[in-house]
Write a structure and sequence with these properties.
Elements lengths: L1 H10 L22 E7 L8 H11 E12 L4 H9 L1 H8 L4 H8 L4 H11 E9 L11 E8 L1 H8 L2
Parallel strand pairs: 1-2
Antiparallel strand pairs: 2-4, 3-4
Helix pairs in contact: 2-6, 3-4
Length: 159
């Protein structure tokens, strides 16, 4: 179902998809050519977050948006959720150090991702879930909505 929807959107030039599997290479998309970047549960995995965010900024059109989410890692609720789900399953099925795996695969916590995005983009909205009225540490995920700053720079220059 999802594949068919993406194919239809691609035919109508509404949506193009690209799966980036290597974060150490430049994104193979022309600068200023993308309206929206959707990134769910990936930015916490990027080793050189500032360089990668800079590449995202370059390909995004002026006024374009980056939307997505990252886990509220290092928080109390996130830690409890991992303790009763994946950590328990991994301990039962494998002889591995769960904490080491998380450290390897998540070199960036949510605050580092947000700080890197704030350096390049204009923050539109950053929200937490499921307890929106509580801080990061009492939630499972952080949703992100940022806008390309270039639109503001062009306006300031009179372009």
């Amino acid at each position: 179902m999802k594949t068919a929807a993406l194919e239809i959107a691609s035919l109508r030039c509404v949506c193009k998809t690209l799966l980036v599997t290597r974060f150490d290479e430049r994104i193979p998309i022309p600068d200023d050519s993308v309206d929206v970047i959707v990134s769910f549960y990936s930015l916490e995995h990027v080793q050189e977050i500032d360089r990668y965010i800079s590449d995202l900024y370059k390909i995004l059109r002026p006024g374009g948006y980056l939307v997505g989410a990252v886990p509220a890692e290092s928080g109390l609720v996130w830690g409890l959720e991992r303790l009763i789900t994946s950590r328990r399953w991994l301990k039962r099925n494998f002889d591995i150090n769960f904490g080491k795996i998380i450290c390897w695969e998540h070199p960036n916590f949510r605050n580092e991702v947000i700080e890197a995005l704030d350096k390049q983009f204009t923050r539109v909205k950053v929200r937490v879930w499921p307890f929106r009225w509580r801080p990061y540490d009492l939630n499972l995920l952080v949703s992100l909505n940022f806008k390309n700053r270039l639109e503001l720079l062009n306006w300031a220059r009179g372009q």
